[in-house]
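Task card 7
Instruction: Convert sequence to structure tokens.
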Amino acid sequence: MIRRWVATLLAGVCAGCHGSGPLLHPAHVLRPGNVSFGAGLSGDLIVAGATVAPLEAGASAGDPAATEGAARRKLSEITVSPGVAPWASARVGIDGGNEAGLTYTGRALRLDGRHAFPLGEAALSLGLGASALFAGAPSPSAGSIAAGSDVYGAGIDVPLLLGFRSDADLFALWFGPRLGLDLLSGEVRLPAGSATQGPLVDASGQHLRVGFVLGVRAGFRHVHVALEATATYHHAMGEIGGVPVALDQGTVAPGGGLTVTF
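Output:
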């Protein structure tokens, strides 16, 4: 009974969680010993290269085109993963112009570190993040977790941010590229309309993403509100149920959160 309640809770938290969690921090790092905590939401909307369900595309169930379309859509779900997700983060300033952070985005747990180079009133931040990915949460539907998909993986990303901030940190602006690579594997169930619908099938994928981040933050003393948007190009390749598939998609991911610094 407890296991079933835990599985239900995990499925609810991760339902619709998307693949590109926001940074929501400026280019300037925290002062040594200072810590910040934040919480908010983010979304991911496909604006180019959208996939559709096989039957909606005019293919009949059992058609090879339907199977390939179903596999491509599933690859998009476990890599690009459009949708809405929670965002929660904790960060700490470290001597030498450094900072470390831990972020949860529904389908990923990201640990990162970064260094900021002072450029007069501006700062250039170079970071490296490593993520544990939970791309397909087990589903307790039909009384069995085998009724859902179960995909896990790991990823890295490198954000490079140039930023400016006002006196007393009342306002901050940052922008720059963010590159990432994810590797995933596990089992999925193909959607209705595919020839291989039924039991779980093996799935694997590689996901390359190239994005551009633009963010702003405003607040007073210890409390700030941050808004950020990332435009990203995604290239994913993989094999779903023995079917090799690849896709290219473009997304826009807005996000926002409230941070408290001590």
